[in-house]
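U., I forgot to send this yesterday:
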Amino acid sequence: MSWLSGWRRRIKLTIDHDDIDAALSWFPVLVYLSTSSGIGGVDVSCVFDELESDDNRKKIAVTKADGVTQLYVEIERWDDANEVAWLWVSRNGWAIADDADTVIYLYYDSSKPDNGSYVGDTNSTPAENVWDTSYELVAHARDDPDTSHVKDSTSNNNDGAKTDADEPVEAAGQIDKAQAFDGTDDEIDFGYPVALGELTIEWWMKSDQGFGAYSTILEFVSAAAYIGFHIKSAVGEWYLRLGVDNVRRFIGGLADITGWHYYVLYLAGSGQNDIDNSAHWQDNSQLTNSDTVKTGGITAWDEFVVGGGETYGFTDCVIDEVRVSSGARTAAWRKASYESGRDDLLAFGSEEKGGIGPFPTHFVIR
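Result:
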């Protein structure tokens, strides 16, 4: 296997094809580095031992199976002191196979300059290249650049504004950090227009105490008062509420509403006027629709809001990794997202050494 020229150390990462039900192109893979990473909980603290500081976090590279073709890397967070890091990896034209394991390589070398062409923090050009063009919003839900905002990782720059500083407050998430909503007045307003058509919304959510009556998890709001789309949760039951006719529609119960779970909502609209169809998943299991969703009069929404409602209550829970995509995401995409988000998609190998040096110096006395 070829070696990326000049790099001294690498680790082989293997994507388990049993979790890939159909080939995926430009799929974002979470690479979580820690003393217990991926399938089997492998200790990869050797990466931090080599790089030694947060300042050296960009002295890494991730390649395709050939060992030399680089993928793009977004650094969500790098914490050398605690030996943890969260990276997102992908690029246009890269595919994950469903009939054989897909291999990538993580290179790291403290003697290299920053790999600024392929590796970057959130909102940098390399980081934005991780996310395909169907993503309208990807919010990792950590405070950035301050306690009043969260950033969008895509090139759309649909950054979110909180109600106020620490409202909601940053908390431990499913993936790095998240936002803890207090159920009183906390929300994050991403404030960007969304055309009604096909949309897929994904997020991770945790609520150890359960939800109050009609807590608003996500909401689309139009310029006209209270016209929008709402998700409500009451005693484990999910609802759609459409402000056009103010009709609440029961869509199904949840198996469990405590602890961390992965949720997906799909909406389909015809002629950008009506919501004709919706589908809902928890932890990659589809929920049964219990009512027909149909309304008219909405052509677009002006804002996308997380955690707060125009007409009903705020939510008391922790929300992480919010994504909005135009179009439908496939069943294989949803499954891989679920497995990746719970760090069960990658298997980590042992540290390999190669490339150049360091070489011992020999003295010959004649």
